[in-house]
Structures are given as C-alpha cells and as structure tokens.
C-alpha cells in the first residue's frame, strides 16, 4: 500500500481538480449510500457530478458514474489504454499498478477530462494509504468506524480510525457520522486544524423520531431506502459542500447558476430525494410483497459485524413469520459474530459456499449459526454448494407472509441479481 505510484500517474495523465469540489467519503460501512445521496442532491441542483464507488455487483462500469449514468465501456477502455501507455513511458521500469489503483486512475481521468463540477470519491480501504487519497478533498466524510480489514488497518477501532482520518485536510470540513468518534481521529483533525462537523453536536439524527436536524432544517428518514444514519451524514456533507461552492468567486462552481441554499436546492426537493434514493444491493428491496401472492426479497451486502447488526435491526422492523436467510461470506470476515446477530430470529438459513479463494465454505457458516446460544428453536440451517442453489430453494420454501433476505457479501448479492437478470 502506498500513494507514490498513483501520484506519479496522476501527474503524467494531467489529472487536475483545481476548479472542482472534491468530496472524499471514508468509513467502514455506509460509504456507497452516503455517496449516492450526495450525488443525487448535487444533480438536482444542476451540478455535473462524477462518482467513484466500489466494488461493483454486475458490471465494472458501476464503479464510475458520470451525471448519474454508468461510464460508457468505450470511454473506459480508451482511458485504460491511456493509463497503460503512461505507466510505460519511462526510461526506467514500468510502473506496476494494483487493480484498485488502475480503477481509481480511470475514474480520476474521466472526471478530470469531463470537467465535472463535483467529484465524489469513495475510499476503498482505510484512507491514509488508499489510492483516492492522492487527491485533496474539499470535504472529507467518515461514515462509521468498525472492525474490518484488521490485517491492513489495525486490530482496534482507534487504529482503524487513525488510518481513515488520513483523508482529512488542513482547514477543510470533516463530517463525522458517528456520535462517539474515536479519540485518535479527533486528535488528528485537531492537529491538522480541520473543521470538525460532528453528529450529535453540529447535526442531529434522532432514531426514535426518524428526524435529521441540521442548519435549522428538519428532514424525515421514515421513508428512506438507504440506512437512515447515512442520510444524516450525507446532508451534513452537502451542507458543507454548499458553503464550499459559494465561499469565493475563484471557484468555478460559484459562477454556475446554482441556488445559494444550505443544501444546494430547496428543502422540499431534498426531502423528495431522500425518499426515493436507493442503491443496488444496499437495503435493496428486489421484490415487494403483493396481494399475498409471494414474499418480499431484500438484498443487502452487509459483510462485517457492524453492518450485520445494523441489518438485523432493520429486518426486525418487518412483519413476517419466517425469514429465509441466504448467506454467503468471505473467509477473512468475522463470520460468527456477523451471523449470530440474526440467530434469535425465526429463520430458515440457506448457507452457501462462495467462489474464489477468499470464499468461505457453507459448512463454516452452518457451524457459526448453530453455535449461537440464542438460536431460535424453530430455525433450520442448511448448506448449499453455491448461492444459486441456496436462493432457488429459498424461493421454493418461502410463503407469502415470509421474507427472503440475501446477505453476507457483494458476491452473494451479485449472484442473486445475475439469477434474476437471466431468469
């Protein structure tokens, strides 16, 4: 891990964002949905927007969005060719790039060439040494801090928080989406002189009333289709972005026909955007229950303990007899803790083996569920060789007053999306 390779290529490719506003979004969970809501509000305000997000579910092009649309394959291939040529233009050896560095450079090149107004960059891993951190952000966002990728980031939340705080910049706004942020992150922000904007102090999210209070305005998350705390974090980021847009005449955005409002557009419009924004695979209702004919299908890429607990709380807000849980996970995740968050729910488990070297066998998932002291006495646990087999059986078994939940990994959700696409 390191930034030198990416920095070298940024210079060679003439990537420049001096006239754009850059929002960098880091954190353990909630990055993709936070990016999506910021994106939708900016687009509604008449700004052009580029979003870099990962990983993808079906098409690699999902990682790069230009004005709400996936990047064209032809444009992407042309950019990849430019990167490949540039990394070989040296009297010394060719610059070797990781998969993520190649993807990041492609996104940055696309956004620079298209001269979008707002660039939204989702951190892939950590922050300090992540490839997106070669670009200085105007607004930095930390959605949450949880235990994930400990081998790279450290084995405590304090260590992980410090790595993620690496996206902060001097005198620039920093949005903290958790009410009790780690001290290492706060200390680093203070050391830099960053402008801390913290949940619970500068903006409020009341989980009981489903209300976000910020800048004298209130917004409801009751009908939100993305995690509700991420709505609050995204609104805080848009508010900070709005101040950045109109902070001086030198910024190209201040010369655009954008209404100078705390959230770039009217509060009524923002509420409508909150209600309709949905992200593929994140609390994604694939099939609604209709007229008692079949059950609902919910897809969620929750793949670590914090996101699993959050998803468990969400599922309990639904009314159902049995939850049919199709689960597939990677070996390096905390499988036991993640799955046991659902163990007291009356469930029929369909544990699936995932492909690739990182994919875990179904038998380990079965053991993880069965080992819980809280396992509901009416629950059943079965193993399957792949996600398709598990999901097909869930469709057969589920009754109209049940729900099907697909979770545990991007690979698990992608397999179900692919199944429906080909059905």
From TrEMBL:
Pfam families: Mur_ligase_C, Mur_ligase_M. It catalyses: 10-formyltetrahydrofolyl-(gamma-L-Glu)(n) + L-glutamate + ATP = 10-formyltetrahydrofolyl-(gamma-L-Glu)(n+1) + ADP + phosphate + H(+); (6R)-5,10-methylenetetrahydrofolyl-(gamma-L-Glu)(n) + L-glutamate + ATP = (6R)-5,10-methylenetetrahydrofolyl-(gamma-L-Glu)(n+1) + ADP + phosphate + H(+); 7,8-dihydropteroate + L-glutamate + ATP = 7,8-dihydrofolate + ADP + phosphate + H(+); (6S)-5,6,7,8-tetrahydrofolyl-(gamma-L-Glu)(n) + L-glutamate + ATP = (6S)-5,6,7,8-tetrahydrofolyl-(gamma-L-Glu)(n+1) + ADP + phosphate + H(+). The keyword Heme does not apply. GO terms for molecular function: ATP binding; dihydrofolate synthase activity; metal ion binding; tetrahydrofolylpolyglutamate synthase activity. Pathway: Cofactor biosynthesis; tetrahydrofolylpolyglutamate biosynthesis; Cofactor biosynthesis; tetrahydrofolate biosynthesis; 7,8-dihydrofolate from 2-amino-4-hydroxy-6-hydroxymethyl-7,8-dihydropteridine diphosphate and 4-aminobenzoate: step 2/2. The keyword Metal-binding applies. Residues 25-192 form the Mur ligase central domain. Residues 282-410 form the Mur ligase C-terminal domain. Keywords: ATP-binding, Folate biosynthesis, Ligase, Magnesium, Metal-binding, Nucleotide-binding. GO terms for biological process: folic acid biosynthetic process; tetrahydrofolate biosynthetic process. SUPFAM superfamilies: MurD-like peptide ligases, catalytic domain, MurD-like peptide ligases, peptide-binding domain. Its EC number is 6.3.2.12, 6.3.2.17. GO terms for cellular component: cytoplasm. Belongs to the folylpolyglutamate synthase family. Functions in two distinct reactions of the de novo folate biosynthetic pathway. Catalyzes the addition of a glutamate residue to dihydropteroate (7,8-dihydropteroate or H2Pte) to form dihydrofolate (7,8-dihydrofolate monoglutamate or H2Pte-Glu). Also catalyzes successive additions of L-glutamate to tetrahydrofolate or 10-formyltetrahydrofolate or 5,10-methylenetetrahydrofolate, leading to folylpolyglutamate derivatives. This is Dihydrofolate synthase/folylpolyglutamate synthase. It comes from Brumicola pallidula DSM 14239 = ACAM 615. The gene is folC.
């Amino acid at each position: 891990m390191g930034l030198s390779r990416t920095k070298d290529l940024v210079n060679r490719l003439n990537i420049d964002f001096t006239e754009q506003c850059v929002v960098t979004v880091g954190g353990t969970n909630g990055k993709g949905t936070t990016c999506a809501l910021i994106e939708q509000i900016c687009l509604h305000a008449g700004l052009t927007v580029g979003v870099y997000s990962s990983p993808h579910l079906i098409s690699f092009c999902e990682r790069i969005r230009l004005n709400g649309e996936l990047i064209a394959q032809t444009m992407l291939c042309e950019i990849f060719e430019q990167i490949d040529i540039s990394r070989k233009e040296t009297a010394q050896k060719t610059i070797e790039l990781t998969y993520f560095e190649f993807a990041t450079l492609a996104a940055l090149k696309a956004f620079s060439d298209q001269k979008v107004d707002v660039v939204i960059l989702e951190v892939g891993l950590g922050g300090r040494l992540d490839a997106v951190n070669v670009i200085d952000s105007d607004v930095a966002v930390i959605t949450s801090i949880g235990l994930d990728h400990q081998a790279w980031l450290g084995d405590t939340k304090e260590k992980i928080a410090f790595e993620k705080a690496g996206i902060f910049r001097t005198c620039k706004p920093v949005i903290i989406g958790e009410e009790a942020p780690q001290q290492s992150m706060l200390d680093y922000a203070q050391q830099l002189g960053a402008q801390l904007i913290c949940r619970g102090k500068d903006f409020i999210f009341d989980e009981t009333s489903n209300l976000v209070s910020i800048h004298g305005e209130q917004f409801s998350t009751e009908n939100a289709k993305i995690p509700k705390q991420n709505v609050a974090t995204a609104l805080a980021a848009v508010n900070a972005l709005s101040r950045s847009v109109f902070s001086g005449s030198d910024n190209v955005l201040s010369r655009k026909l954008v209404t100078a409002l705390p959230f770039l557009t009217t509060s009524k419009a923002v509420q409508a955007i909150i209600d309709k924004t949905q992200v593929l695979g994140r609390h994604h209702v694939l099939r609604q229950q209709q007229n008692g004919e079949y059950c609902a299908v919910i897809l969620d890429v929750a793949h670590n303990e914090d996101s699993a607990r959050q998803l468990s709380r969400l599922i309990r807000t639904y009314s159902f007899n049995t939850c049919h849980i199709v689960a597939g996970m990677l070996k390096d995740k905390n499988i036991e803790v993640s799955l046991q968050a659902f163990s007291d729910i009356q469930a029929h488990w369909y544990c699936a083996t995932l492909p690739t070297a990182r994919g875990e066998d179904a038998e380990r998932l079965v053991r993880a569920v069965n080992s819980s002291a809280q396992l509901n006495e009416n629950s059943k646990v079965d193993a399957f060789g792949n996600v398709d087999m598990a999901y097909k059986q869930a469709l057969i078994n589920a009754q109209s007053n049940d729900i099907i939940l697909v979770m545990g990994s991007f690979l698990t959700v992608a397999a179900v999306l692919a199944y429906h696409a080909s059905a």
